[in-house]
């Protein structure tokens, strides 16, 4: 039986908002992450998906304790890291590495590829100069680059190659947990699949555990074992991949699936046409946070907060009507679909058609 490598229990990150020129007064709180709980099992990939601003990156940074949580417990390999000392954290950081979204800005342009990849080994005092040199070349081969690339600079590489360098750097200290913060979002669609496949191969070879952050469900379909969907700082649905894609129970997950069948750049506009703007985490709606955009919302959704409850084996959703939300298969075929949602989908289809005409 596998053990959780990472556990978050009711974790919150609140940012006070202050105003005033001379005397600063607290005027509100941004609820960036608001009561998030999940377990990430050793060797699995959990994808955290949601629109921009829903708190995915904050969750990732909290998990690695790159930022301090306001409340809640974060356990890494059974140890509560919110209470870990600096020294403990230094040791643990070697075990948890991060791959960033933008391969253009995350590599220091003044450093050679060798220096970039070796940097975590230097920071964590791993090996001597000669062994680090060998390790860099071995890592370059692992990510399908050539050993002679070690002496070059980042600007000499394409986006996909730079991301391979970022991956080699993360793996240089043999971590167990790798946080992948939108690692393919900045890349061409044709390159995305190559990087996703590389990450999957490396996971198999080294038994890595991935926390994979993405704003689109299409990207994580091939890489994840389980998926958590976030909305305004909270997880609204979490399930194994098959249940989530075949039988999404939260109207927001359904909207994400309907609006973004493939990773295309018009996605965010598409979400707008599905149900208004994303509310601010500074002043989130009462009751169910999704009620202001939900085509199925009823009176109680405005006042009663839905719990994230079990609706199937390992499948949890935070919707008062999770059991009665139309099944996605029928939904996809246009039958049994709620009229208001149908209207929104028609609007989306018109919007896409208009985009296609405009770009023709
Ligand atoms: N240091 C900060 N101070 C105040 N608010 C913050 C801070 N960091 C993040 N936030 C807010 O917290 C919310 C969640 O941010 P976060 O970056 O985690 O979202 P995200 O889902 O990762 O979005 P993106 O995909 O755009 O990175 C946002 O509304 C953001 O503006």
Quick gist of this model?
By secondary structure, the protein is α/β, with parallel strands linked by helices. It has helices spanning 56-63, 86-95, 113-123, 129-142, 159-171, 189-206, 217-220, 241-246, 251-259, 267-275, 299-303, 328-333, 339-359; strands spanning 4-19, 25-41, 45-49, 71-76, 79-80, 96-99, 177-181, 209-214, 226-231, 234-240, 309-312, 315-317.
Describe this structure in words.
It is a single chain. The chain has helices at 56-63, 86-95, 113-123, 129-142, 159-171, 189-206, 217-220, 241-246, 251-259, 267-275, 299-303, 328-333, 339-359; strands at residues 4-19, 25-41, 45-49, 71-76, 79-80, 96-99, 177-181, 209-214, 226-231, 234-240, 309-312, 315-317. With 360 residues, it is α/β, with parallel strands linked by helices. It has one domain: Rossmann fold (3-Layer(aba) Sandwich). The strands form two sheets. An eight-stranded mixed sheet has the order 6-7-8-3-9-10-12-11, sandwiched between helices. Strands 2-1-4-5 form a four-stranded antiparallel sheet. A hairpin with a 2-residue loop joins strand 11 (309-312) and strand 12 (315-317). Helix 3 (113-123) packs parallel to helix 5 (159-171). The protein is globular. The N and C termini lie far apart (54 Å). Residues 262-273 have low confidence and may be disordered. The structure holds adenosine-5'-triphosphate. Adenosine-5'-triphosphate (ATP) binds next to strand 2 and helix 1. Belongs to the ABC transporter superfamily. Residues 6-257 form the ABC transporter domain. It is found in: Cell inner membrane. Pfam families: ABC_tran, oligo_HPY. Keywords: ATP-binding, Nucleotide-binding, Transport.
């Amino acid at each position: 039986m596998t053990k959780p490598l990472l556990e978050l229990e009711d974790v919150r990150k609140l940012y006070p908002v202050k105003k005033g020129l001379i005397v600063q007064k607290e005027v509100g709180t941004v609820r960036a992450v608001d009561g998030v709980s999940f377990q990430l099992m050793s060797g699995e990939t959990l994808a955290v998906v949601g629109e921009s601003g829903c708190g995915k990156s904050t969750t990732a940074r909290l998990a690695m304790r790159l930022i301090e949580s306001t409340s809640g417990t974060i356990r890494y390999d059974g140890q509560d890291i919110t209470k870990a000392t600096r020294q403990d954290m230094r040791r643990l950081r070697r075990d948890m590495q991060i791959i960033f979204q933008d391969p253009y800005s995350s590599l220091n342009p003044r450093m050679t590829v060798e220096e970039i990849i070796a940097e975590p080994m230097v920071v964590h005092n791993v090996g001597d100069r000669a062994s680090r040199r060998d390790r860099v070349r071995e890592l370059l081969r692992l990510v399908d680059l050539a050993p002679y690339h070690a002496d070059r600079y980042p600007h000499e590489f394409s986006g996909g190659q730079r991301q391979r360098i970022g991956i080699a750097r993360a793996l240089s200290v043999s971590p167990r947990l790798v946080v992948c913060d939108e690692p393919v979002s900045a890349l061409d669609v044709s390159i995305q699949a190559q990087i996703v496949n590389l990450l999957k191969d490396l996971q198999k070879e080294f038994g890595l555990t991935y926390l994979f952050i993405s704003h689109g469900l299409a990207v994580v379909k091939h890489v994840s074992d389980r998926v958590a969907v976030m909305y305004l700082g909270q997880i609204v649905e979490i399930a194994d991949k098959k249940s989530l894609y075949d039988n999404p129970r939260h109207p927001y997950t359904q909207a994400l699936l309907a609006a973004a069948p493939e990773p295309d750049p018009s996605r965010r506009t598409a979400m707008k046409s599905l149900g208004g703007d994303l509310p601010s985490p500074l002043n989130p709606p009462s009751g169910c946070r999704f009620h202001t955009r939900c085509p199925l919302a009823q009176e109680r959704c405005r006042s009663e907060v839905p719990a994230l409850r079990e609706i199937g084996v390992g499948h949890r959703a935070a919707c008062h009507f999770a059991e009665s939300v139309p099944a996605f298969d029928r939904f996809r075929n246009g039958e049994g679909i709620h009229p208001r949602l149908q209207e929104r989908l028609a609007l989306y289809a018109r919007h896409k058609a208009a985009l296609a005409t405009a770009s023709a």
